[in-house]
Design goal:
The protein contains 23 helices and 19 strands. It has 600 residues and is α/β, with parallel strands linked by helices. The chain folds into 4 domains: 197 residues, P-loop containing nucleotide triphosphate hydrolases (Rossmann fold), CATH 3.40.50.300; 198 residues, 3-Layer(aba) Sandwich (Rossmann fold), CATH 3.40.50.300; 93 residues, Arc Repressor Mutant, subunit A (Orthogonal Bundle), CATH 1.10.10.10; 74 residues.
């Protein structure tokens, strides 16, 4: 069987696809040829297949480094549903669970091992790394390795150290957005043996980019909903706005739901399912919504305020029109947006005394002793931490981000983690407990009856189901599981949806905490540069598609002819003008909406 037949057979067998998307096969063949490769593919370009197919074709373990726990878990679940052995090591796992997964990888039981970047330097990982049959290293969201990137994470820079221990193993770095400077930095930071970039086109001719300027954002949003049919995402930057805008749309007769991290997991799942199945037309959400969601028929994405940078804007706007059909990305601006954007840049760099205060308060809340805490994770209760420090929640959040950028901690967004149990005791000790302990023995018996493989790996459990079987209150079951963990019979991880903070260095003395002033200045300069680029995009007179592609160093031969700049330059079509309504804004929308009004 030839190599080409092999990768197409893999694609057909596991995904049922008859062919690859543009650039996918080129990237896959580069990986199979052992070439270090940076793949720049736009949002929706099918990046995960680019490392999953060659890894399966090789028949060797693929080490996947990713910063997003939700995406890692989603991909692991999808692979396992296809009969592919995949596991993830994340910040929310206990030591025994991590050891079990890493040992499975070391003895060749896995095809894919997903690892969050902060775990790469841990002794648990490094001790087993030489035994792992790794054939490919995949670095997802590769822009995170570059200090020039918009989402820099210092822990990504550990990947080069791992590469040094795996000579000859190729690396495939993937990202949906990287400028020329960022791309070069990615290859340097990942110690590429030779520069090699495969770039998919960032051009989206089916996507109309439209920047709308005026006072009444809500009125303009209503016009979009009235005149652009189909599924929609409305992006805002805080939770209160999601609720307020969703209620506004519902009041005006449009199906809409608010989505943010403050909702419980069941509610978020229900809203996402209703939106995906078109029961709910519009989701009003913070920027985390959309990651890993493959909904091809989104007809409009609306930004109610300036994104922090063009990379974020491109990724979020690009969630519209993945089916190749005409779609719209609206950016609704208003006077004062530029100053608000500048204020956010300034606020992102708090004073050192505030950073020290937050560092100390977090350690006090979780009783983390001086010199301890390395690679331990603790839940982040932002508002409780803010109350303890008497700082605003926004300032506390910025202080934590500074600590992350300086390499002290890693932040993990809130992700639903169901309850898990993993038996760590020897089988003979478990048997002895089952027959001699009349209180905890029946609980262990119930676990073994309901869930298989508890000795091999952690299993997701349902305390309510166990309580029903044992005819006991749920809180009795939880207390029993906690006691079994205390007696080292098992590891019990209760369900949680909280964000986590992981110490990447032992907890130090807050009074002696320092930040590198040169590095701090460089980060602020880069944040300012990205903010300025976003503002230039809004106010520039260049075709929106051309301006956006210029930022990513991709030339566009001719203007798109459909954005607000192009339409305003050639307004030769006379369209019917309806009577003004209280919600109308005297400003044009795209011509295919069949009506427009003169600007004020």
């Amino acid at each position: 069987m030839t190599e080409q037949q092999d990768i197409h057979a893999v694609l057909q067998r596991y995904w049922g696809y008859g062919g690859f998307r543009p650039m996918q096969e080129t990237i896959i063949r580069a990986a199979l040829d052992g070439r270090d490769t940076l793949a720049l593919l736009p949002t929706g370009g099918g990046k995960s297949l680019c490392f999953q197919v060659p890894a399966l074709a090789m028949g060797r373990l693929c080490l996947v480094v990713s910063p997003l726990i939700a995406l890692m878990k989603d991909q692991v679940q999808r692979l396992r549903s296809m009969g592919i052995e995949a596991r993830a090591v994340t910040s929310d796992m206990r030591t025994a669970e991590i050891e079990n997964v890493l040992e499975s990888a070391a003895v060749g039981r896995l095809s894919f091992l997903y690892v969050s970047p902060e775990r790469l330097a841990s002794e648990l990982f490094l001790a087993r790394l030489p035994r792992m049959p790794i054939g490919l290293i995949a670095v997802d969201e590769a822009h995170c390795i570059s200090q020039w990137g918009y989402d820099f994470r210092p822990s990504y820079q550990r990947i080069a150290e791992v590469r040094a221990l795996l000579p000859g193993v190729p690396v495939l770095a993937l990202t949906a957005s990287a400028t020329t400077a960022v791309a070069q930095d990615i290859m340097r930071q990942l110690a590429f043996r030779a520069d090699h970039i495969i770039r998919g086109s960032f051009q989206r001719p089916e996507l109309v980019l439209w920047v709308s300027k005026g006072e009444d954002r809500y009125g303009r949003l209503l016009r979009v909903m009235q005149h652009v049919p189909g599924s929609s995402i409305v992006y805002v930057r805080d939770r209160k706005q999601t609720v307020r805008i969703a209620q506004y749309l519902v009041h005006h007769g449009h199906s809409a739901k608010a989505y943010h991290a403050g909702l419980d997991h069941a509610m978020r799942d229900r809203i996402q399912a209703e939106w995906t199945s078109n029961v709910v037309r519009c989701v009003v959400a913070t920027n985390a919504f959309g990651m890993g969601i493959d909904k091809p028929d989104v007809r409009s994405v609306v930004h109610m305020e300036l994104p922090p940078d063009l990379e974020s804007y491109y990724q979020e706007a690009g969630r519209a029109g993945r089916d190749g059909q005409r779609s719209h990305a609206f950016l609704l601006t208003a006077p004062g947006d530029e100053q608000r954007a500048q204020d956010k840049v300034d606020a992102s760099f708090p004073a050192i005394n505030q950073v020290r205060q937050v560092y100390q308060a977090f350690a006090d809340m979780h009783r983390v002793a001086m010199g301890s805490g390395l690679y331990e994770s603790y839940p982040l209760h932002l508002h409780a931490l803010a109350a303890r420090t008497t700082l605003s929640a926004a300032v506390v959040s910025h202080c934590l981000k500074v600590l992350e950028l300086d390499g002290h901690i890693a932040l993990t967004d809130g992700v639903h983690n169901p309850s898990r149990v993993f038996i760590t005791a020897l089988a003979k000790d478990v048997y002895h407990l089952r027959v001699t302990d009349g209180r905890l023995g029946p609980l262990v018996e119930a676990l073994l009856r309901l869930y298989g493989g508890l000795y091999e790996e952690a299993a997701i459990i349902d305390e309510t189901r166990i309580a029903s079987l044992m005819k006991q209150p749920v809180d009795h079951i939880v207390k029993g599981l906690l006691e079994l963990e205390k007696r080292t019979i098992l590891v019990y991880r209760p369900r949680s949806s909280e964000p986590l903070v992981t110490y990447l260095r032992p907890r130090g003395d807050a009074l002696r905490l320092t930040l590198d002033p040169t590095s701090l200045k460089d980060r602020k300069d880069r944040a300012q540069h990205r903010c300025d680029a976003m503002i230039r995009f809004v106010h520039g007179g260049q075709c929106r598609s051309r301006a956006l592609l210029d930022y990513f160093s991709e030339p566009l031969e001719q203007d798109c002819g459909q954005c607000d700049v192009c339409v305003q330059r050639d307004r030769t079509i006379t369209l019917p003008r309806p009577s003004p309504s209280p919600d109308a804004v005297l400003e044009p929308l795209p011509k295919d909406l069949r009506w427009e009004l003169d600007e004020e």
